[in-house]
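Posting this for the archive.
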Amino acid sequence: MWGVLPGYWKQLQSVPAMEIIYHRIVWSFLVSAILMLSAGRWHIVAEILKNRKRRFIVYITSGTIAVNWLTYVYAINAGKIVEASLGYYINPLVNIFLGMVFLKERFNRLQTCALILAVCGVAYITLNQGSVPWIALSLAFSFGLYGLFKKIGNLDSVTSLTVETMFLSLFALPALVQLGVSGEGAFGGGSLYTDLILAGSGIVSAVPLYLFASGAKVIPLSRVGFLQYTAPTISLFIGVLQYGEPFTSVHAVSFGFIWAGLGLYTVSGFIKRS
């Protein structure tokens, strides 16, 4: 589901990225709140809101996920699906870096080599294209920081999404109301198809996350890590084959470094658990 999301957001190319994010926040809150209520877990949301430290962490995760969503939607509709997929390939290796810096975690030689290969991949594409792949790096680091602070706050995926979108809706909902009153908003502007796609943004955001959280509980962690690489792979093929985005020799070399790093990272995980 995460892999095919570029095709979903492409249906909203006529809508400004910021307005799409406003809708994604509000509709995601509605869907995740329904999921929490149906599971009888709303009391967990209340506990987080009462805890000052965890509430502060939610403020931070809200900001990082908002940056991640906005960057991703902008990238898709700007014809940068390939670069967006690069960001999610880099993300597991960024997690290594963040763990070393903030959590003082120790990593073996294979994991260190994996991180070096990722840096080489980013450096290669930067030097050969003359610009930093800021979309890829923004996605990788915003999602990495999101995961880091969720770990610090001990927040599970669906609960944190509920609280984060609740907080962000305090800003997103008034913005949507203002757009609607001024007649500048896309929702209700005449296209039922656009209205349905915008409303469905909550489902395509919350449901895959709910399925991921449920699936991660019943399969080995090594398999979870491996399966997470399928989403950027699907997105990469969609960008190149369906939307005709270029995949040059520079991309091939840069991605090659990243894939080699991911290979080492995956092997190190199997060795550690064997």
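The chain has a mean pLDDT of 90. The two ends are 31 Å apart (CA to CA).
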